[in-house]
Amino acid sequence: MCRHLAYVGHPVALDALLYAAPHGLVHQAAHPRRQTSGTENPDGYGIAWYEPGRPGPRRHRSTTPIWADDELPRLTRDVRSAAVLGAARLATPGLPIEVSGNAPFVADRFAFSLNGAVDGWSDGIGRQLRARVSPGRAAAIEGVTDGETLFAAALDRLDAGASPLDTLADVVAAVEARSTGRLNLLLTDGVTVAASAYGNSLFAFEGDDGVIVASEAIDDDPRWVAVPDRAVLVADATGTTVTAL
Whole-model pTM? Predict the structure, then answer.
């Protein structure tokens, strides 16, 4: 199980999402309120953010617990971005703790995270799902995690012209056809965020400056709403829509 978060809207300091909010990503990684498996997320983290003029996101990843990394406050203190995706990891049992396994996974203009796990991943399901990925996208897979392969599958759908909503729905369906799991997927291109709620908590906040989608609310603002299970949320700076799977 993991905790993840995405933002799109007017430029915001990374520090506001990670540290300054009472239950920002750093705090909820160490003290999750709604996590159903595990009591913290110590197996590393990653942050992706978008800058004007760059075709894709910048990224920082580490296997250090997000709350213990002295480099992260320095990195985030002076960075502002109109789109952010962050994730703190609790590694699936049996999968290695290495930076290649840490979301966000990035390619082209996209960043992606999985909060959850594909059941039976190391018992053959992983090989089945990876075999469905196109050779070009499969060649770019660095590690052995379920999240990275699901991202490659999502990229294939995006390459074929699918919308973010249909992309996440198709990836969930591909897993459902072979196994079970907890499949909270998070995808952004720096303008739009798509997120599935499937076996894990997911909340959304529409503020004056942008939209936040997160495993847990990062503060006590009453505008946070829970996303129903087995649904996909699509959000941009103007608002959100939710579609049942």
Answer: 0.96
C-beta of residue 214 within 8 angstroms of C-beta of residue 221: no
Over residues 63-77, the pLDDT tens digits come to: 999 999 999 998 888
Amino acid at 78: D
Q: What is the pLDDT of residues 38-58, one digit of tens each?
A: 899 999 999 999 999 898 999
Q: Is 2 a catalytic residue?
A: yes
* Amino acid identity at 11: P
Q: Which of 1, 2, 165, 212 is catalytic?
A: 2
**Residue boundaries of the structural domains of the chain:** 2-244
Closest CA relative to residue 152, chosen from 170, 130, 173: 130
Question: Alpha-carbon distance 65 to 211, whole Å?
Answer: 26
Class of domain 2-244: alpha beta
- In this structure, the number of other CB atoms found within 10 A of the CB of residue 143 comes to 15
